From TrEMBL:
This is CCHC-type domain-containing protein. GO terms for biological process: viral process. Keywords: Metal-binding, Zinc, Zinc-finger. It holds the Pfam family Gag_p24_C. InterPro entries: Gag_p24_C, Primate_lentivir_Gag_pol-like, Retrov_capsid_C, Retrov_capsid_N, Znf_CCHC, Znf_CCHC_sf. Residues 204-228 are annotated as: Disordered. GO terms for molecular function: nucleic acid binding; zinc ion binding. It comes from the Eukaryota. Residues 238-253 form the CCHC-type domain.
């Protein structure tokens, strides 16, 4: 998912959010998760930033009822990082409340998105829909690049809609232009229209490489056949004299006078 859409895409962020929300993760779990998502060097950078962020989290926790663990000891930085005497996952589960664990997870997630992405960026302006590509797939490709390169969600939505309309293939562009202009169609309406009507609009050109033979009109009675050109005649080989340029019926050999002793 991270490789396909990029770690800054809304799809990947949604998956990350779902992972944290559906699992009560302690610091040990968080470290294991990001070891899977990051290269060793990226992980070192992430861990350093995370621990720095947890110092701010600790200051916030100290001002709340969660300032002590379940053994009534003051929460420390080691509690939040899962280090020292608190490196055991079982101890982390026993000592830390859910609200504290949520704050640790939020800091880990926010820090993750601060890590520079190694992905090669292709300008979203150059993302174009392929002739046979589904419009929904095209929008997903476009969205992933826009979200990697533009941070403002409002601007993201405007760009995705504009570029989807501008860089759609011929079939989908015709469908979009057929939609009512006042008010202008939303991205969801364009997706629905292109998904449901694409086959209808592209039916005549579905297989542009295949040509259907045109029906040949039956020859009218008594109609004369057009004479063959000299170039066409050169491809004709006579079965009598084996020379090109004529049929056996018109062979000069057949035009010679018959021998006297040949019976009529």
């Amino acid at each position: 998912m991270q490789k396909q859409f990029g770690r800054s895409s809304e799809i990947f962020k949604g998956m990350m959010k779902a992972t944290f929300n559906s699992n009560e993760m302690v610091p040990s779990d968080i470290k294991d998760l990001f070891r899977c998502l990051l290269t060793p060097s990226e992980y070192d950078l992430w861990e350093g930033l995370w621990k720095k962020a947890l110092k701010t989290v600790l200051q916030e926790i100290q001002q709340t009822p969660d300032a002590q663990d379940s053994d009534h000891n003051d929460i420390t930085h080691d509690h939040l990082c899962g280090e020292g005497d608190l490196s055991s996952a079982n101890e982390q589960i026993r000592l830390l409340s859910k609200s504290v664990l949520d704050k640790i997870c939020n800091a880990a997630e926010k820090t993750f998105y601060q890590i520079p992405s190694p992905e090669i960026k292709t300008s979203y302006v150059n993302i174009k829909q392929f002739p046979s590509e589904n419009f929904l797939q095209f929008v997903d490709r476009l969205r992933s690049q826009v979200e990697r390169q533009v941070q403002d969600p409002v601007v993201q939505a405007e760009l995705i809609k504009e570029m989807a309309q501008r860089n759609a293939n011929e079939t989908c562009r015709r469908i979009i232009l057929s939609l009512p202009l006042d008010p202008s169609p939303s991205l969801a309406q364009m997706i629905e229209a292109c998904t449901t009507r694409a086959e209808l609009f592209s039916a005549p050109e579905r297989n542009p490489g295949l040509t259907h033979p045109k029906p040949v009109a039956a020859a009218a009675p008594g109609a004369r056949r057009q004479p063959m050109s000299s170039d066409q005649l050169q491809h004709i080989i006579c079965h009598c004299c084996k020379r090109p340029g004529h049929f056996a019926k018109a062979c000069p050999e057949n035009q010679k006078p018959k021998s006297k002793n040949q019976k009529n």
